[in-house]
Design brief:
Blueprint (H helix, E strand, L loop, with lengths): L9 E4 L5 H6 L10 E4 L2 H9 L5 E8 L3 E2 L1 H8 L5 E9 L3 E4 L10 E4 L1 H5 L2 H7 L4 E4 L3 H7 L9 E4 L1 H7 L3 E4 L8 E8 L11 E8 L7 H10 L5 E8 L7 E8 L5 H13 L4 E7 L14 H15 L3
Parallel strand pairs: 1-2, 1-3, 7-8, 7-9
Antiparallel strand pairs: 3-4, 3-11, 5-11, 6-9, 6-10, 12-14, 12-15, 13-14
The protein binds 3-phenylpyruvic acid.
């Protein structure tokens, strides 16, 4: 199965109006599908794990701030999941406030941690000293402003949410980087493997084995030796004990490609508890070149040659 069935149902980091919902709406058919907002990434993934919905859209990586730790950790542990699609969304932030508040009055601001981190230059220049109150998403922070006794003055969200809620905009294009992009992933249960497209990505979670000097170099060598390029590598603590880490890696190619499959075999020998989180089409459709000696044909010829040598007759 290469994509969710036409009648598929979805969850996303909500409420309505998050950048994550905008990412979900790029999935064909999602605009007319059942869409269930979830309050956190973990809650969204649990709805997939317990079968309440078919797939969840969650943020994974930002061009300015890097990996979204909550997502990297949630997909790396617990019941296995599969990434079946990635979506890129250009991000533009606005500052909205309660109706009676002017820019000079803003003392406290709520938003998602990644949005806050990406607006630091504007905040420092325009409201130095403003205090941050963490929010579960940009849209949740904006909606909160409409509630009685909201404990903060302003929120950072998308222009779309500001307009829909009718909130006064005190600053537009407040992100530090004009063309920031966030990458989102569509996650399903592990019975789905999208077909290779020729421009694919494979995501892996590789625990760093204990008492294995040079393990990281050996892990990286599995990719290098087979001409598999990496597009993201991050280390995250497992939470078990100090110094216990796993690597979250995106590699170019699909598990159906011989060089990727062969790298996975090598990785399994070094770190047997590694997790395959899926092979799926790259959002930018960029194809990568494959050297002749790492092509499917080269691997096939090498296997046939060895098998012929192993025969006794
Ligand atoms: O809070 C949102 O709207 C999200 O979807 C998470 C997020 C936050 C900041 C940048 C991109 C995505």
């Amino acid at each position: 199965m290469s994509s969710p069935a036409p009648e598929a149902s979805y969850t996303f980091l909500g409420p309505e109006g998050t950048f994550t919902e905008a990412a979900l709406l790029q999935v064909p058919g999602a605009d007319v599908a059942r869409r269930v907002p979830a309050p956190t990434v973990n809650a969204a993934l649990d709805l997939v794990r317990n079968g309440s919905v078919d797939a969840a859209m969650v943020p994974i990586e930002n061009s300015v701030e890097g990996g979204v730790s909550a997502t990297l950790d949630a997909i790396s542990q617990g019941e296995p999941l599969r990434i079946i699609r990635e979506v890129l969304v250009p991000i533009t932030f606005v500052l909205v406030a309660k109706p009676e508040i002017r820019l000079n009055d803003v003392q406290t601001i709520s938003t998602h941690g990644h949005a806050w981190a990406q607006c630091q230059l504007w905040i420092t220049q325009n409201i130095p000293g403003a205090e941050y109150m963490p929010g579960s998403s940009t849209a949740a922070a904006a909606v909160g402003l409409l509630e009685k006794d909201c404990p903060y003055d302003a929120a950072i969200c998308s222009p779309f949410v500001a307009e829909r809620l009718g909130l006064p905009v005190l600053g537009s294009h407040i992100g530090d980087v004009a063309d920031a992009v966030t990458r989102f992933i569509l996650v399903s249960r592990p019975d789905v493997l999208p077909e290779p497209t020729g421009a694919d990505k494979t995501t892996l979670v590789i625990p760093l084995p204990e008492d294995h000097p040079g393990a990281l170099m050996e892990i990286l060598d599995q990719f290098a030796a087979r001409g598999v390029n990496l597009s993201r590598i991050e280390s995250r603590p497992t939470g078990q004990f100090l110094g216990d880490y796993f690597f979250s890696i995106d590699a170019e190619g699909h598990i159906a490609d011989a060089r990727v499959a062969d790298a996975l075999k090598g990785l399994h020998r070094i770190s047997p508890h590694l997790r395959f989180l899926g092979s799926y089409a790259r959002a930018d459709r960029r194809e990568h070149s494959v050297a002749r000696h790492t092509s499917d044909e080269a691997f096939r010829a090498a296997r046939i040659w060895v098998e012929s040598l192993q025969q006794n007759d």
